């Protein structure tokens, strides 16, 4: 019978064969376990077309509500990606989804000095990616972006704590700072401006961005990376076929 130490030695050799030393790489084929031998497999669910409704907004709301009730950490966290033209350079950042209706997905941010605002000036296309690790699910959204007006943005702005409203006024988002003291000086100036005032107007350069999707993909992780993927594509006017405004296709993983 083989000794325990001999079995461990063979196991170590096997892992080394899977991931031989890559001296030129800082990271190579990482995994979550301590042995770093194999990537995790997704086994928590499956997805069939029959489980999907005809409207991607309602389907997203169903998945989002499920994520909220099943201990997904901050399911509203989403990666917003934009691209500048003519270079085509893409930039991405994590933001929070704040609203959803049958017009689109809404996030709020600075649109005066930020990188995203410069991208959107010349290219209205944007994408959102949600990743819910606890459920092994993701949702991708691609569509045209439009800025919401001040009246719409004020409704959400009023729900923020006072410090966040002051911060929205004070920050010159994405501009180079000489140091933290410079930022804190801007905050003090805005605090003086609104001293004693509970009602603070939304800044003209800050507000909501609505992504009006042309495509929404629902992704459920599966074993061996053979994931279930379904894509809703907005139908063109006059297009015949399935009823409703969206066509649903299964995609290869």
TrEMBL record:
Residues 72-190 form the Pyridoxamine 5'-phosphate oxidase N-terminal domain. Its cofactor is FMN. Pathway: Cofactor metabolism; pyridoxal 5'-phosphate salvage; pyridoxal 5'-phosphate from pyridoxine 5'-phosphate: step 1/1; Cofactor metabolism; pyridoxal 5'-phosphate salvage; pyridoxal 5'-phosphate from pyridoxamine 5'-phosphate: step 1/1. GO terms for biological process: pyridoxine biosynthetic process. It comes from the Eukaryota. Residues 206-253 form the Pyridoxine 5'-phosphate oxidase dimerisation C-terminal domain. Keywords: Flavoprotein, FMN, Oxidoreductase. Pfam families: PNP_phzG_C, PNPOx_N. InterPro entries: Pyridox_Oxase, Pyridox_Oxase_CS, Pyridox_Oxase_N, Pyridoxamine_oxidase_dimer_C, Split_barrel_FMN-bd. It is an enzyme of class 1 (oxidoreductase). Gene3D superfamilies: Electron Transport, Fmn-binding Protein, Chain A. GO terms for molecular function: FMN binding; pyridoxamine phosphate oxidase activity. Its EC number is 1.4.3.5. PANTHER family: PYRIDOXINE-5'-PHOSPHATE OXIDASE, PYRIDOXINE-5-PHOSPHATE OXIDASE. NCBIfam families: pdxH (TIGR00558), PRK05679.1 (NF004231). This is pyridoxal 5'-phosphate synthase. It comes from Calycina marina.
